[in-house]
Amino acid sequence: MKPEIRIALVQDALPYMSGAEKVLAAILELYPQAPVYTLVYNRQAFQGSIFAGHPVIPSWINRLPGAARNYKLYSPLLPLAVEQFDLRGYDLIISHSYAFAHGVLPRPDQLHISFRSTTLRYAWQSFHEFTHRGGRLRGALLAPLLHYLRLWDLAAAQRVDHFLACSGWIADCIWRAYRRTSTVIYPPVEIERFQPLSPRQDYYVTLCRLVAHKRVDLIVEAFSRLDKPLVVIGDGPARRRLQRQAEANVRFLGWQPDETVSEVLGRAKAFVYAGEEDFGIAVAEAQAAGCPVIAYSGGGAAEIVVPGSTGLLYPQQTVEALIESVGCFEKSQADFDPGAIRTNAERFSRPRFQQEFAAHVDNLWQAFEAGIGRWTPG
Fold first, then answer.
1. How does the average pLDDT of the chain come out, rounded?
2. Does domain 191-347 sit in CATH 3.40.50.2000?
3. Which candidate among 77, 119, 182, 185 keeps its CA 20 to 30 Å from the CA of 167?
4. Burial class of residue 217 in the structure, from the number of CB atoms within 10 Å of its CB (0-12 exposed, 13-18 middle, 19+ buried)
5. For strand 311-314 and strand 293-296, is the pairing parallel, antiparallel, or unpaired?
6. CATH architecture under which domain 7-188+349-369 falls
7. Would you list the domain boundaries of the chain?
């Protein structure tokens, strides 16, 4: 792409360094001249990262109390805030969106490409699960808000010229919500951080942020019944509740540095997951460590795990289905080769992502310049 093309990157939020932020970092490496527009920016959390010293322009939401970490509390205001980004000075807008970033207002002479980590999950595919959690009053209060956000989200999607999706599952979600097609580009996984280690040890592990939709409660309940050693890495608002639920065989390590995560995954007997993931970076990281995966088959995990070769998938998001799958794994664990599992993960490397992403953006820009790259309905 020509260096004189003016590019802006738009991200929902930068509260802390996690999976979505690492994806944006990989994109920013491709377009280092592009400023980043975001609803909130917790500057302290990104010291020493690629974002430190880079032009990052937060919205006025960033000035509201507690917004840097808990910006979702201001969800009714976020569509308004993202629409107020003034991007008139750019030729190409690339949004990385899991909620609101795709809702910017491009001009007719601008190209807008949106890489979607998910659709607005709580308003679409997880609406009933989300509104039924926490009692009827909570659901009754949330339903009108999510209805409003769904209507806005559908309108905002029409401002995007081309969608890229992080998995086939999200491509299906984009079609279901917006009736728009998208190209799948799997997100970058830092596979170089991981290696199979020997000897492997007699414990299972799960790794994620401890929030309700990750369904760690299913894993804790299953392993409390099985009385098999389970290590839980991660922190979040559900941690205390999960610890109260767990038996003595379940250990909570909280947040851990990359070196510890690599060591624990590299020696684990198997990695266990129960969430319906948009892609599942933690699942791919476990595979990079040569670790067999036992995961719920919904969402993106089914695009990472090769059943019977690199792990097992269970069909229902229940304790009983997970217990049955662990039992099957115990009988067949000798069939899983750490080297082959590691090889499976290499298709999700960071260089592969950057090459595919840059090539696709280049092709779309060339088509746009030729007058054939704009999306039209119908």
1. 94
2. yes
3. 77
4. middle
5. parallel
6. 3-Layer(aba) Sandwich (3.40)
7. 7-188+349-369, 191-347
